[in-house]
Write a structure and sequence with these properties.
Blueprint: H1 6-12, E1 19-24, E2 28-30, E3 39-43, E4 46-53, E5 58-65, E6 71-75, H2 82-100, H3 104-127, E7 131-138, E8 141-148, H4 152-166
Antiparallel strand pairs: 1-2, 1-3, 3-4, 4-5, 6-7, 7-8
Helix pairs in contact: 2-3
Length: 182
């Protein structure tokens, strides 16, 4: 038996009732709301945000009229090369510790620690996918969702649909067919 929170019930009321487009940080665009942790939902008049505040361990829902949103910001994060420099320095330090420390036990221990730390940093660099952010700003209020860089095209489609709704261009196509293929 699945227990449904009160917040989920409130959002489920929007399913099929004027929902234009839903953007999830995990799965991208959709026509309907599904059980995602962070979403942005466009209705005919509102932008709805459902999110989870990890600091306070609370769930929140925000509603804002699309007509009052002043700024839409798409922040794209690229992978930095700084961790690679750190990995190179750790591996170089590991080699230097092995070559210069005369006590065998200390040399092996120090070399092992630096080597494992370097390998851990390299693995986290290779496995970590950069994230981007889509924000809607109205005065001092900001609604945003964080997503993987591979969903940038879908975030741009969501932004385009937002501007169509805000500017009164009511295209019934729902813009999902315009999603670029990867």
């Amino acid at each position: 038996m699945r227990v449904v929170s009160k917040m989920e019930n409130k959002l489920d009321l929007y399913n099929g009732m004027g929902v234009e487009l839903v953007f999830s940080g995990q799965s991208g665009l959709s026509d309907n709301y599904s059980d995602e942790t962070e979403i942005l939902m466009l209705t005919h008049n509102n932008l709805v945000s459902k999110g989870f505040d990890r600091d306070q361990d609370t769930e929140h829902i925000s509603f804002v009229k699309i007509s009052v949103i002043d700024l839409v910001r798409l922040s794209v994060t690229a992978k930095s090369k700084k961790p690679l420099i750190r990995v190179a320095l750790l591996l170089l330090g590991s080699w230097a510790a092995f070559a210069t420390v005369s006590l065998a036990g200390v040399s092996i221990l120090l070399t092992s620690i630096l080597l494992v730390w370097g390998i851990f940093n390299l693995a986290s660099f290779l496995l970590e996918e950069p994230k981007s952010n889509l924000s809607f700003i109205s005065g001092d209020m900001e609604i945003s969702v964080q997503f993987h860089n591979k969903l940038i095209g879908e975030a741009q489609v969501f932004m385009d649909r937002f501007f169509e709704l805000r500017d009164g261009k009511n295209d019934t196509n729902n813009s999902l067919s315009d999603v670029p293929d990867d």
